[in-house]
Amino acid sequence: GGDHGVKAKGDGWLLTVALIDGTNLSATKSSGYSDPYVVFTCNGQTKTSSIKFHTLEPQWNEIFEFDAMEDPPSVMEINVYDFDGPFDEVASLGHVEVNFLKYSIPELADIWIPLKGKLAQACQSKLHLRIFLNNSRGTEVVKDYLDRMEKEVGRKIAMRSPHTNLEFQKIFSLPPEEFLINDFTCHLKRKMLTQGRLFLSPRIIGFYTNLFGHKTKFFFLWEDIEEIQLLPATLSSMGSPSLLITLRKGRGMDARHGAKQLDDEGRLKFHLQSFVSFNAAHKTIMALWKARSLTPEEKIQLVEEESETKDLQNEEGGSFLGIEDVKMSEVFSSTIPFDVPVLMGIFEGGPVERRIMEKVGCMDYSVTAWEPVRADVHQRQVHCRLDKKVARRDGEVMSTQQKSPLPDKNGWLVEEVMTLEGIPLGEFFNLHIRYQLEQTSSKQKSCSVQVFIGMAWLKSCKNRKKITQEVASKLSSRLKKIFSQLEKELIPAN
Q: What does the pLDDT read at residue 388?
């Protein structure tokens, strides 16, 4: 009754599975043995092995070839059953899911996979498999996929460079066949906002950030998504719409640390907001999700609805560079005639901070309260609109700041990661700023202030050196104004 040995048909992604043998299968019959057989399911196709009677150490040596698939498969479900007659209810001997994104091709070529389930785990049951995944279209895989996606969504999608794809694969430990389609700057909302970058590829949606030396990264499959909600703009979302992604029950648990919540139905929810290019991000996310989850008829309807042509890549242009350590350089150093606690007033969110920041061109200045993130470390969010006199155009700044006491407790370290919106090339980099405020040893009230900046380049562009110098010069001038204004604010009160 098996369909083993049937040759695959079609052109595209070809999956071949060799079922070699099994070991330590659980016994379900009074004889102390079972009659096991294996069912493989991938992309809606099912392949069934032959039945091996009266054994707990079955030897199959059978090959299964799945018909060609347009898209690379994400997962393959494997179920091992005990045969007890054609009309009796089957008993499970174990099950497992192979996630193709978590194994390299050499690993899959010869692998022992532990089975899950009470009986299987108690007996330490395993299957011996050889799994091969390749594309019959050869080197044109990426181009063919992008061409097809463009037809499905009615939009141009640019191909990324080999270097870009390699960096993307390194971040999430992905196999070489997974390629980057697009990436966007955004905030992940959990208990606190986290600035980072959202990465989209044919099979996954992933988030990565390295904020103040603390990395957060996770990904989940498009097929794991049950619903994507568009939430209207609010004050807490910095005046921009946001997305709430709900996964299917029990799915994506490896990404649980990035979720805003686990609801009563066991579903993870991820909240993403403050996109530099919200429309481009939203349309790309919806197109990729629907392309993986819709039936062919639903995809045709999607093409008809999404008929206008637009280049997604141009909305947040450039090519993702990869993750690099930020090199910091000093741009401001001064001794201020005030104690550290007085000087820290500029980071306390009160009227003094607001007046000073508005006088240096930060309009509609707003901050959240400092919240603890770990021992002696607090974090807050800052948002403002840049005065046209400062930026020569409407721009917005979103920052995450962390403060922590210096090791000898005689001052504070304030670190900031700043994202610029509406500024030319602002989406190409994040600005890192480090303020070090330290009490001087002299008897007089005075404080040493040092400020360092660094630029984390997210995308490639020309004239990086020139842009870095210009940003450093502007920031140095702005810092002088801030601390000069602070002295003017504080001197009348002293």
A: 67
Whether pLDDT at 312 is above 50: no
Task: Please say which residue of 250, 269, 295 terminates a domain.
Answer: 295
Please tell me the pTM assigned to this model.
0.69
- Locate tokens 């070699």: which residue? 20
Q: What share of the chain is helix, strand, coil (3-state, %, to 5)?
A: 25, 40, 35
Q: What pLDDT does residue 306 have?
A: 46
What HEC string does 346-379 produce? HHCCCHHHHHHHHHCCEEEEEECCCEEEECCEEE
Distance between CA atoms of residues 274 and 22, nearest Å: 50
Inside any domain, residue 190: yes
Pick the range with the lowest mean pLDDT from 11-25, 33-47, 107-121, 459-473.
459-473
Q: Cα separation of 174 and 65, whole Å?
A: 24
| CATH code assigned at 92 | 2.60.40.150
Within a domain: 311: no
Q: By the 8 A CB rule, do 187 and 272 touch?
A: yes
Closest CA to 323 of 485, 451, 213, 426: 213
- Please answer whether residues 287 and 415 qualify as being in contact, where contact means their C-beta atoms are separated by less than 8 angstroms: no
Residue type, 360: V
Whether residue 63 is predicted with pLDDT greater than 90 in this model: the reply is: yes
Same domain, 257 and 366: no
DSSP labels for 383-427? EEEE-HHHHSS-EEEEEEEEEEE-TTSSEEEEEEEEEEESSTTGG
- Residue 18 CA to its chain's centroid (Å): 33
Q: Place 418 in a pLDDT band, splitting at 50, 70 and 90.
A: confident
